Amino acid sequence: MHLIQTYYAAVEKSKHLSNENLDIENSLIELTYQRLSLLHVSNNNIKTDIEIFRSYIQNVHIKSLETMTQTLIKQYAELLLKCVDKGNYIPIISSDDKTNKTNHVDEEILLLLLLGQTSTLNEAVHDWQPEHEGQRERSHQAAYNILALLSIFLSRKQAFHIIADSYERALRFSFEHFQTSFNYGLSLISSGQSYRAYLILKECLR
After folding, report:
1. Residue-level pLDDT, tens digit, the chain, 206 residues
2. How many domains does the chain have?
3. Assigned domain for 34 exists
4. Relative to the CA of 61, which of 4, 22, 78, 122 has its CA 20 to 30 Å away?
5. 191 with 161: CB under 8 angstroms?
6. What distances in angstroms separate CA 172 from CA 125, 151, 168, one per listed residue?
C-alpha cells in the first residue's frame, strides 16, 4: 500500500506524464482493487476483504484517485450492509493507543457513507456549459449512488430528517434530475415536512 502511495505521489508531480496515461493507470489500479475484493468475497473471506478496503480508504489520499476512492467506499459500505453484523464485525483499532475507533458495524457504515457523500458533493461538477454535460452527469450519478445507500441505511434508523438534508444538498447541482427531486419530496413527507414536500412533488409532476 505504501508503494502505491509513493508511486502516485510521484506521478502527480510528473509534468511529462499525460492525463490520458494517468487515467489508464488509475483505471488499472481501480480494476485490481475491485477484482481483488470480489475474489475474497467469492471465497467467503470477508475478514481479508475488509482489511483490503480499510487499508486503501485509510491510507490513500491522492487527488487523481478520488473517483476510485468513492467507488470503493460504496462497495465497502455495500459489503458491510449485506455481509456483516454485530456478531462478526471486527472493530477498527487505532495503531497508536489500541483503542477502538468504531465499536459497531453501524458506526463504520455511517462514517463511510458520510465520507462518500462529502467527497462526491465536493467533486460535483457545477458548470452548466454543454461541453461539461458528461462530467456533470457522472458526478451526479456518483453522488446519487452514495445517497441511495445512505437513505437505505438511515431509513432503518428512522433518521428521515438527515435523509432530507442530504437530498437537499444534492439538489444544488442536480435539481434537473427527477429521481433526486422525487426522493427529496418523499423524505420530506417522512420527516413530517408536508408542505415543503407538496411544493417539491408538485414541481416533479409538471
Report:
1. 444 444 344 444 443 444 444 444 455 555 655 555 555 455 567 788 888 888 878 776 666 567 777 888 888 898 898 888 888 888 887 666 554 567 789 999 999 999 888 888 777 655 556 666 677 777 778 888 899 999 999 999 999 999 999 998 888 777 677 888 999 999 999 999 999 999 999 988 88
2. 1
3. yes
4. 78
5. yes
6. 11, 18, 7
Read off the DSSP letter of residue 88. Answer: T
Residue 107, domain extent = 2-123
Give how far Cα 166 sits from Cα of 147, 150, 161, 199, Å.
7, 9, 9, 18
User: Considering the domain boundaries, does residue 148 fall inside one?
Assistant: no
Is residue 73 within 8 Å of residue 111, measured between CB atoms?
A: no
195 domain residue, yes or no: no
